[in-house]
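Hi support team,

I'm opening this ticket because the web form for multi-chain structure prediction keeps timing out on my end. I have pasted the exact lines I submitted so you can reproduce it. The total is 439 residues across two entries, so I didn't expect it to be a heavy job. Is there a limit I'm missing, or should I split the entries? Thanks in advance, R.K.
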Amino acid sequence: MAASLADAVAALAERGAEGAPLAGATWIMRAPLRGEAHLAYVGLSGIPALRALSIGETEIGIGACVSHAHLARALAALPEARALAEAAGRSANPAIREVATVGGNLCSAAFAAADLVPALLCLDAAVELAAPGGTARLPLADFLAQRDRLPPGTVLARAIVPRPIAPGATGRSAHIRLPLRAAGDYPAAIVSLAVALDGDGRVATARLAVGSVEPVARRWTALEERLAGRPLDPDRAAGAAADLAGAFRPREGIEASGAYRLRVLPALVRRAVAAVQASS
Amino acid sequence: MPLEIVVNGEARTVAADPMTPLAEVLRDSLSLTGTKLACEEGFCGSCTVLLDDRPAMACLIPVALAAGRRVRTVESLAPADAALSPLQAAMESHDAVQCGMCFPGMLMSLTALFERQPAPSRAEILAALDGNICRCTGYERIVEAALSLGGETAAEISA
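Hello R.K., no limit was hit. The queue was backed up. Here is the completed structure from your submission:
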């Protein structure tokens, strides 16, 4: 168990490829079930800085060891961050949410159905990485592209959500997930949407991310362009999603086929736009 | 390396590999077999315990992460020779227990709920049990029993 972030970085650098950070452990404890051996873990959960969550005027800073439950409670009264609160408050089940962390959710490269990833993507989040050479901030999408080959000694210290969603506008967001059971299950597909409207009620900024469909969540910029400059219209958005869904290469799984994940996407887009509309 | 954990109010020292699941330590080292291990991947809830008063799946907690923390298991609800807790008594009077495998977890999830929310709604009870699967599908009686605990009885649980 590391006592400070600097200690964790040093211990992980020393362990090299044999080492790995450990936060809530809910993913790592199932490594043997996936046929993976345990590594030389460095525990992060005793580091106070990583357990901190701050809601500032210009950004929300979320320590890597903040639990899903803590995040959901902290963001409950913040309409623009509703996508993230919903993602944190509805994923898995209550006992997992008390333990599973933000950092773990972002770092589990093989976990395609992670809820926080699309929610943070739609909120244009960045991550702060601590490494032997110092601390660097990079956009979440860039981190996702390189997270499985970062040099040993790299620790995701915080996720940062900029505020507001767009300058000078009131932003709203929503997180729509489709688990195969009503609750307590992994979602087959996820749509996270953040929108800022202009003075005439037209979409000034729209950011939409899709999770659990492909192996890694990503923004759907082609659909964002179809939403921009018009009033929110759930049915029109669903129609555009149906037109554009061919751009995904969906993953097959025992719980849902790739074709099913694509089939439900327009409905999830419709629900996301309607949810944002209802809260505007 | 020996680890110290406060289990049901008592400081216990355990010697185990740090990655050993807490549920295994509770059952095999401390003989607290009320906590059940079933799916061992955080889906079924039969191993639910309270970790610093919040529900947690003991199958996915490496014992090293429980060091220095307070763990409560189903055995804490009615210590030897004590009467059943109001929650347990409600389950008995509603005839809600079937095979019993899920019950320790159900009781601990509901105990955590009642300690925070003495008079929960049906929706809140259902949400608290999202991670507790009953393979006998006896959910209705479990929920009815939990609902029958009014504010007063609920206050006793947390006392």
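A quick check on our side: The two ends of chain A are 45 Å apart (CA to CA). Let us know if the file doesn't open in your viewer.
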